[in-house]
Automatic annotation (TrEMBL):
<feature type="binding site">
    <location>
        <position position="66"/>
    </location>
    <ligand>
        <name>S-adenosyl-L-methionine</name>
    </ligand>
</feature>
<comment type="pathway">
    <text>Quinol/quinone metabolism; menaquinone biosynthesis; menaquinol from 1,4-dihydroxy-2-naphthoate: step 2/2.</text>
</comment>
<dbReference type="GO" id="GO:0009234">
    <property type="term" value="P:menaquinone biosynthetic process"/>
</dbReference>
<keyword id="KW-0808">Transferase</keyword>
<dbReference type="Pfam" id="PF01209">
    <property type="entry name" value="Ubie_methyltran"/>
</dbReference>
<dbReference type="InterPro" id="IPR004033">
    <property type="entry name" value="UbiE/COQ5_MeTrFase"/>
</dbReference>
<keyword id="KW-0830">Ubiquinone</keyword>
<feature type="binding site">
    <location>
        <position position="130"/>
    </location>
    <ligand>
        <name>S-adenosyl-L-methionine</name>
    </ligand>
</feature>
<dbReference type="InterPro" id="IPR023576">
    <property type="entry name" value="UbiE/COQ5_MeTrFase_CS"/>
</dbReference>
<feature type="binding site">
    <location>
        <begin position="113"/>
        <end position="114"/>
    </location>
    <ligand>
        <name>S-adenosyl-L-methionine</name>
    </ligand>
</feature>
<keyword id="KW-0949">S-adenosyl-L-methionine</keyword>
<keyword id="KW-0489">Methyltransferase</keyword>
<protein>
    <recommendedName>
        <fullName>Demethylmenaquinone methyltransferase</fullName>
        <ecNumber>2.1.1.163</ecNumber>
    </recommendedName>
</protein>
<dbReference type="GO" id="GO:0043770">
    <property type="term" value="F:demethylmenaquinone methyltransferase activity"/>
</dbReference>
<keyword id="KW-0474">Menaquinone biosynthesis</keyword>
<dbReference type="GO" id="GO:0032259">
    <property type="term" value="P:methylation"/>
</dbReference>
<comment type="function">
    <text>Methyltransferase required for the conversion of demethylmenaquinol (DMKH2) to menaquinol (MKH2).</text>
</comment>
Length: 240
């Protein structure tokens, strides 16, 4: 059974995730950086560097949220970045951010479903995702569509939470994720479910070698997993 934010509701995971992000969109950036102590910014920078040698000109950022990963990817000097997300609330916050920074001519944000991307085959030089794939309703379907829209030879770079395996990081991480993070998230975002869903979704996600196996299953080759910060997160790379 899929992990969902609102266990008392009948809607599917996709609809619930969209509702959750709409609810927390105005506080999302603050909470993201605060709860990770700003380390999430470093993780995105490292992920973008994985594409430096490829010099991608057209990049798709899936589950773009408020556009942080897309903005980071401008370091690659692409011609265009398109960000898609199912949450209109998150996209609205992202558009405000882009306009304020005068980046809206280089990054375009669109409403989009990661499992039914409205782009032709073989369109993008790179597809990037940060902290989004674990929210897919159907993981394989979403990854297959990412593969479909990539050009042959193109790469995907995915940043996602992992589960630390070694003492004492494993125990400290589990305590923080289970008891501290949900309480802070609830107080600041006013959404009781959002930051309870986060640790539950991370726990259910097939990280490490298990996720590489899924990438290979849908067609990606030359797959790699690079753990970050004692295994709290990982960067995954795959090539079409």
């Amino acid at each position: 059974m899929a992990v969902v934010p609102y266990k008392d509701k009948q809607e599917g995971k996709k609809e619930q995730v969209a509702e959750m992000f709409n609810n927390i969109s105005k506080k999302y950036d603050f909470l993201n950086h605060f709860l990770s102590l700003g380390i999430d910014i470093t993780w995105r920078k490292k992920a973008v560097k994985m594409l430096a040698a490829d010099k991608p000109k057209l990049i798709l950022d899936i589950a773009t949220g408020t556009g942080d990963f897309a903005i980071e990817a401008l370091a690659l000097n692409p011609d265009k970045i398109i960000g898609v997300d199912i949450s209109e609330g998150m996209l609205a916050e992202g558009r405000k951010k882009l306009k304020k920074r005068k980046l809206d001519d280089r990054i375009e944000l669109q409403t989009g479903d990661s499992e039914r991307l409205l782009f032709e085959d073989n369109k993008f030089d790179a597809v990037i995702v940060s902290f989004g794939v674990r929210n897919f309703e159907n993981l394989e379907k979403g990854l297959r569509d990412m593969y479909r829209v990539l050009k042959p030879g193109g790469k995907t770079v995915i940043v996602e939470f992992s589960k630390p395996k070694k003492f004492p990081m494993k125990q400290g991480y589990n305590f923080y994720f289970k008891y501290i993070l949900p309480q802070i998230g609830k107080i600041v975002s006013k959404d009781n479910a959002a930051y309870t869903y986060l640790p539950e979704s991370v726990q259910a996600f097939p990280d490490g070698e298990d996720f590489l196996a899924v990438l290979k299953k849908v067609g990606f080759k030359n797959t790699q997993c690079k753990p970050l910060t004692f295994g709290i997160s990982s960067i995954y790379i795959g090539q079409k």
